[in-house]
């Protein structure tokens, strides 16, 4: 499918694909250009989601994007998504990385990391994702805001990085669908998952990135405290004593003269 003539048109069934079409066609199991709920469910299972997230995710995605892509202008009772009109499902309050024709905007993509992450701007964490979605939200656009939050948190949960941060290459692969294909290939080579029915939060790997992220934040915070309170050895202070005649000493043999320590103070210096 080539890009549509404009954002209202239907994309022609010819090559090359737009990145948005490549993103959607991964889930098209029978390659008919129409995504059904079972298509999306099994696609989510193939890339690593467990049963419950796959089922809930498929229902939410089709409930949100079926009507904008319909070819009749009427709601589809089966909530099917038409890939050749997937550009009509581009919503507000997003990163604007997809244009309204489904093209990939490189500058907008770079803005995600340039505006919302710390140097060297090559990865993004969950907290930064939440701030980014909040910053990109449009006024009164609750649907777009919730959809963007669902998509980005879903991406983070899908990739579940051990360091707690998504790399720029991983995120870009999600936009064009290549990350989905890599994950499906990798998961197909794994042994059968006999605990596929367990929710992800009951699995040990679920907590590894979160624990790593928390420990990393504590490490950074501790380093900041140490840097701010680094002990510096004071420079030696010269002490100058003034000799007094023998008659100025007290009965105990102490010189009751002045000792200068920055400013003159009274002190006794043993002789």
Automatic annotation (TrEMBL):
What are the TM regions of this chain, as residue ranges?
42-61, 139-159, 194-215
Q: Name the source organism.
A: Sphaerobolus stellatus (strain SS14)
Q: Would you tell me the protein name for this molecule? A: Uncharacterized protein
Family note: Belongs to the caleosin family.
Q: Which controlled-vocabulary keywords does the entry list?
A: Membrane, Transmembrane, Transmembrane helix
InterPro entries, alphabetized:
Caleosin-related
Single Gene Ontology MF annotation = calcium ion binding
């Amino acid at each position: 499918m080539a890009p549509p003539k404009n954002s209202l048109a239907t994309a022609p069934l010819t090559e090359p694909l737009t990145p948005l079409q490549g993103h959607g066609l991964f889930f098209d199991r029978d390659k008919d250009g129409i995504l059904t709920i079972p298509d999306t469910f099994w696609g989510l299972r193939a890339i690593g989601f467990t049963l419950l997230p796959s089922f809930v995710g498929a229902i939410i995605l089709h409930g949100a994007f079926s009507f904008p892509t319909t070819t009749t202008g009427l709601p589809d009772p089966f909530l099917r998504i038409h890939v050749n009109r997937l550009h009509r499902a581009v919503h507000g309050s997003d990163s604007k990385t997809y244009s309204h024709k489904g093209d990939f905007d490189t500058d907008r993509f770079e803005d995600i990391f340039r505006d919302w992450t710390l140097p060297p701007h090559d990865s993004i964490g969950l907290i930064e994702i939440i701030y980014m979605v909040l910053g990109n939200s449009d006024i009164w656009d609750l649907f777009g805001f919730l959809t963007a939050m669902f998509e980005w948190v879903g991406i983070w949960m899908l990739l579940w990085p051990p360091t707690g941060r998504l790399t720029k290459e991983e995120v870009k692969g999600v936009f064009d669908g290549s990350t989905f294909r890599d994950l499906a290939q990798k998961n197909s080579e794994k042994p059968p998952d006999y605990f596929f029915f367990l929710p992800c939060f009951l699995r040990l790997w679920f907590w590894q990135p979160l624990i790593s992220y928390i420990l990393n934040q504590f490490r950074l915070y501790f380093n900041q405290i140490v840097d701010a309170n680094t002990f510096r050895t004071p420079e030696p202070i010269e002490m100058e004593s003034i000799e007094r005649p023998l008659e100025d000493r007290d009965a105990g043999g102490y010189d009751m003269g002045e000792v200068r320590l920055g400013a003159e103070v009274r002190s006794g210096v043993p002789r």
